[in-house]
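Pilot study result, target chain (329 residues):
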Amino acid sequence: MNHRRTGPITSPHLPLGDRRDAPFYGRDILEVAQFRRSDLQYVFGVAREMREMVARVGSFDLLKGKILANLFYEPSTRTASSFFAAMERLGGSVIPISEVRYSSVSKGESLPDTVRTLECYADVIVLRHPEVGAAKMAARYARKPIINAGDGIGEHPTQALLDLFTIFEETGQVDGLTITMLGDLKYGRTVHSLARLLSLFDVRLNFVSPDVLPFPTSILNELDQRDVPWEAHSDLEAVLPQTDVLYVTRVQKERFEDPTQYAAVKDAYVITPDTLSRARPRMALMHPLPRVGEISMKVDSDPRAAYFRQMENGLYVRMALLAMVLGKA
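Predicted structure:
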């Protein structure tokens, strides 16, 4: 069902408390295909409430007595720490497992057994795994909600939600925007999920990448089925003047088997103050971080640089998701 063109997303005041009839109570968060525009309205409304509550009181006891298991098979700074902070801000507790080599995984324990063990102690599990589909597989065995924090080169749904929330907060809208994604579009799970989520809106998408890192054809076919206009380029200058949101990704060294191929493309695009001099005055510059040189630090003081505000938004969106799946929003 096509859920595009169903009106603007507003920010109603949403009371927080026991809401076991609320959307996503007890459900897994595995992929962006789960979300309709009405769901996004709900998530973003709760996220704004969370932001206001953090500003007023810092932390509160909404999830007091609840426990989150943070299970990360791949390195993470922002996703792991923001989920940790989100649970702590909500009054809950966290079991952090970020070094799986020190856990029973190093002894050969399967993912299903690890998940079924952790759910004996926790109320919700956040999982990052290097294999595509790992979160879905874990959810088949788990009795407690699983939140996908990235599965290989597959999806990163909570990142896509915070990215979309940031676009709303930076521009005030999504319908009618031209959004350009730049960099590693082949392996970048953040852009894969964001493009799918943006297909719910009337947007124009540009994909700019080296020839060896194109956007996956399978997702382009999905965009075609939803009548989302898109263009692929290798030159940023061809689309920069028309871009409302520039979403930059790093070239991921860890995804390359051949170091020479990585070296050939790692500096293909670098955003500098000179680049921004040719961009729209109110363009939003985003990046999921970490960056390794594709955005000059000299750009950080530009008001269009939204990536650290983007990271902060991740806290509020993940607070909202935790409250939702645990029936408190």
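One observation from the pilot: The chain is about 35% helix and 15% strand. A full batch analysis is planned for the follow-on phase.
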